[in-house]
Amino acid sequence: MTSASTRAPRLLALAALACAAGSALAQQSAAYPAKPIQLIAQQPPGSGSDAMTRVWADCAARELGQAVVVQNKPGANGILAINYLKSQPADGYSLLSIGMSQMTITPYVYKQPPYDPQHDFDGVAVLGTSPLVLAVPPGMGIASLADLQKLARSTPGGINFGSPGKGSPAHLLTSALVDKLGVPGTHVPFVGEGAGLTALMGQQIHAMTLVIGTAAAQVKAGKLVPLALFGAQRSALLPDVPTIAEALPAASDLARPAWIAVVAKAGTPPELLHRLNAVTEKCRGGDAQYKSRLEAMNVTLTTSTPGDARTWAARDAAVWRPLIDKLGLATE
């Protein structure tokens, strides 16, 4: 039996170890970042998500005085990138840029969710929001949703519509819209928005929902025809494009912009999350290059705290999960 006289030295030794560990952690946090940070991008180079990721990386590197290196790990609509993040230490040196898709939709289109947005990540910041646009290629005689509806009804099997991947906002929004139009449609997933855009402009698919920053340049070049904006109000970037409520009042509930955030692996020290959040806020509030680059992509910047990524995810999942169930989109 252990006596009080032998327990005391052990307790003192454990306390000393705990103090030493706490001191080492405090010193490590104070020195952060002492080496380059890797920022994982879940979409391929050239995509809208990748472009936003690189803007944050550039500004964060300037503010931190340390390189922020973007590592593209596309595939399975972000699942490959998420699995990679989960394999890394929770030390603030591996971060992930993640969209509304991966935080609120992707896990729930699988009957066995591949990850849990509320428990697998610690938030750094929500960077901003961006509306989505449904577009078709020119030369098909489609200038409105009514025209698309007629085409779908007259085409065996209906229309083929693309997205950057299964479980993306583009996938869910277009699936829901096709359902509201009462026409058949087949989802064609691509690895990233760029591949789908190429197929759309080549008329390999009939329609695709795109981030407005991606769509606008092609619309102005005459390579795409926009049909509706999934937002509550029209965009100055494409002022003649009706909102989804204007184009189809029955689909007004689909006016939901996409958003992008930066997260870390769950268990990352809170002081590092707050440091990275402060850097993000400094970029948003005082870095003209950061603001102009994102605003050129029609991203509306938003102030945020580290907890907002989970809060926003829970809010939007409450809308998307019932819709996924209603449309029967969940698969094995």
Give a structural overview.
The chain folds into 2 domains: 31-129 and 259-327, D-Maltodextrin-Binding Protein, domain 2 (3-Layer(aba) Sandwich), CATH 3.40.190; 132-254, Periplasmic binding protein-like II (D-Maltodextrin-Binding Protein, domain 2). Helix content is 45%, strand content 18%. It has 12 helices and 11 strands. A 6-stranded mixed beta sheet has the order 2-1-3-10-4-11, sandwiched between helices. A 5-stranded mixed beta sheet has the order 7-6-8-5-9, sandwiched between helices. Helix 2 packs across helix 10, helix 2 (48-64) runs antiparallel to helix 11 (288-296) and helix 6 (169-181) packs parallel to helix 12 (308-327).
Write the layout of secondary structure elements.
Elements: H1 4-31, E1 37-41, H2 48-64, E2 68-72, H3 79-86, E3 94-99, H4 100-104, E4 121-130, E5 132-136, H5 145-154, E6 159-163, H6 169-181, E7 185-189, H7 193-201, E8 207-211, H8 212-220, E9 225-229, H9 244-247, E10 258-265, H10 270-286, H11 288-296, E11 300-301, H12 308-327
Parallel strand pairs: 1-2, 1-3, 6-7, 6-8
Antiparallel strand pairs: 3-10, 4-10, 4-11, 5-8, 5-9
Helix pairs in contact: 2-10, 2-11, 6-12
Organism: Acidovorax kalamii
Pfam families: TctC
Family: Belongs to the UPF0065 (bug) family.
Give a quick rundown of the structure.
The protein has helices at about 5-30, 50-65, 80-85, 100-105, 145-155, 170-180, 195-200, 210-220, 245, 270-285, 290-295, 310-325, and strands spanning about 35-40, 70, 95-100, 120-130, 130-135, 160-165, 185-190, 205-210, 225-230, 260-265, 300. The chain is an alpha/beta fold. Helix 2 (about 50-65) packs antiparallel against helix 11 (about 290-295) and helix 6 (about 170-180) runs parallel beside helix 12.
